[in-house]
Amino acid sequence: MKFESKTKVSSEIPTASMPDIIFMLLIFFMVTTVMREYEGLPVLLPQAKQIEKLETKRHVSHIFLSKDGMISVDDKIIPMGNVRHVMYKKRAEDPQLIVSLKADKHVTMGHINDMHTELREADALKINYSTKTAVY
Amino acid sequence: MKRRMHAGVIPTASMADIAFLLLIFFLVTTTIDMDKGLGIILPPPGAEVEVSKKNISNLLINAQGKILLDNEPVQTRDIKRIVESKIAANDKLIISVKTHPRTKYQVYIDVLDQLKQAKATRISIAEPSQ
Questions:
Q1: Going by CATH, does the domain composed of A47-133 fall within 3.30.420.270?
Q2: Is residue B73 assigned to a domain?
Q3: A63 contacts on B by Cβ (under 8 Å)
Q4: CB-CB under 8 Å, B106 with A120
Q5: In chain A, where the domains are located
Q6: A89 — contact with chain B (CB < 8 Å)?
Q7: Is the dihedral angle over the CA atoms B118, B121, B124, B125 positive or is it negative?
Q8: pLDDT, position B46
Q9: Which chain B residues are within 8 Å of A96, Cβ to Cβ?
């Protein structure tokens, strides 16, 4: 006697929708990716423990302040007196602006205080001292 | 009459591969590490607020990195404990941080870090008096 299954159960995983799934993932990553826009100056960031993450990258503007007091915004070296004009323009474009101050740890507070004054004049009041996580 | 239907078909077998390739590219270029640091909000320009003396704690840092908290020299690592007890005694306390123009930025960040650890939310960055 010969047994024969009447219904053939297909044991294959349907792959027809695979490209769609992959495309969906792809579009998700494309939308969430923010490419690194600016190189900036070489800085050694200070270290701190109680750090907080910046929730967003869209409203963040970086100011680089190197050891010898050079300031770079958007890959342009600018003098201290021009920071207020540059940042004021940015602030007008994006009211939610957060300034991430990437200053070298060997920089002196004279420069930082000048920067505070410039940023206050530009009305860019939300700032974040960029630091590394300290490991003790 | 029978029509032949085999012409004009785009091969879709490699579609998944192409999509995967693009996906991997975006996965690799996505930077996961977010910016992190110590957040602070600067006072608006020209805003002078009168605060009663007993609600202010002065924290001075000199050029050598020595710290004076309410006229008492302190070590960096002790700031957290002292400020915590000060805030427990007076929750309206404002910590006013004053620095010398030649103070190292790292020292300032260390102090700010300690204040943040002590849950001090009212931190004022004072303009150095000329």
A1: yes
A2: yes
A3: none
A4: no
A5: 47-133
A6: no
A7: positive
A8: 73
A9: none
